[in-house]
């Protein structure tokens, strides 16, 4: 779990956000902790983002994780993915 | 524990008295003339019902959420419009009380409602958003001296002309995204209402809900610090669906009771024969029980979800659950009322008999429009793509 792997995950998350988040701004201009909903992600786009993440990382988010706060920022998504991987390990 | 139960019972006894003695005798006049149920609202104010859900620490009645829901049911049995005014006020109060989070202006406001029994209306819908209350066009516009302003085009504001205060959803700032919303509380001396339409609807006529352009100037502390994305998901939306469905159940229950009274009257006139309508009444009872079951499990699920980490209310499975309560109850309530009409026949259809259920049917037909079911189905369809257990 080197920092390069962590930043790689961050980049892959950003790619999914770029494809499915329908943000009015480029995700590259946002920090890891920036609020994606405040940046303009709609509830509908957030569902697409969740589906996109499930496909890209070959995981399934359990219902308890399917809430706004889990998908609020790149860092929140990275934490959720790490939690799912830890649970699977 | 028993003090809390006693308090709920005393509150509900006073609500039942108001429902029977004030709301019921005025219900037909309120409906016929599409006029505000002023007598019922005054009686509720006199019983301090407008602060019933406000916690003790702010001088409120401290009754349980279950008691507020039961009160909506009781009022709904006697006058749907009165019940809707009561329910909508409680929705705004609950949203503030549950999300006050130590904001000093809002803590003082809750004390003020308890002292003055102020009636709060909401301005959540907006022309141009396609019925999506999760988006706003109008924004909080910062001005001079810590004051801010807004101007919002509202397609309906229920009892706006009679409210002491308005709770309005707005974009946080002029450059904020449509979904980046806050709620703002303004007093009557801070807002103006310019009516933009008439009010002559099919049902729920006493709610007096024409469109308005709402304009206000207010100190910036009157913006609730908790964002609407949280207030809406954790409180305003599920609580609206629960309180509305309770009053729709109340209206439907009264329609059923009238149908039963009609069948009993027929049976008494010919005691040896089962009236032909009796079987239909039995069928209607099972329709009513379906509605009652969905409404009561909805309340139970909400109480359970609220007891723990309230963020559980923001999971997609939970959002689906309370959206479904709204859809199911809003479709079932007019079905029960129509069934009652078919039991009663012409005396149910006429507006001036003890068995009239026309008002009940018309009032409950508004249910599918209060946040259009089609829109909720769209949301649900999207959430179902990702939620696992529903």
Entry summary:
Chain A has helices spanning 3-20, 43-57, 74-88. Chain A has 89 residues and is mainly alpha-helical.
Written overview of the protein:
The complex is a heterodimer of chains A (89) and B (390). Chain A has 89 residues and is mainly α. Helix content of chain A is 54%, strand content 0%. In chain A, helix 1 crosses helix 2 and helix 1 (3-20) crosses helix 3. Chain A is globular. Chain A starts with a helix and ends with a helix. With 390 residues, chain B is of the alpha+beta class. Chain B is 54% helix and 11% strand. A four-stranded antiparallel β-sheet of chain B has the order 2-3-7-6, with no helix packed on it. A three-stranded mixed β-sheet of chain B has the order 1-4-5, covered by helices on one side. The mean pLDDT of chain B is 96.
What's the arrangement of secondary structure elements?
The complex is a heterodimer of chains A (89) and B (390).
Chain A: H1 3-20, H2 43-57, H3 74-88
Chain B: H1 2-32, H2 38-46, H3 65-78, H4 80-99, H5 104-116, E1 120-123, E2 141-142, E3 147-154, E4 165-171, E5 181-187, E6 191-195, E7 212-219, H6 228-269, H7 277-307, H8 316-344, H9 346-349, H10 358-364, H11 373-384
Parallel strand pairs in B: 1-4
Antiparallel strand pairs in B: 2-3, 3-7, 4-5, 6-7
Helix pairs in contact in B: 1-2, 1-3, 3-4, 3-6, 4-6, 6-7, 6-8, 6-10, 7-8, 8-10, 8-11
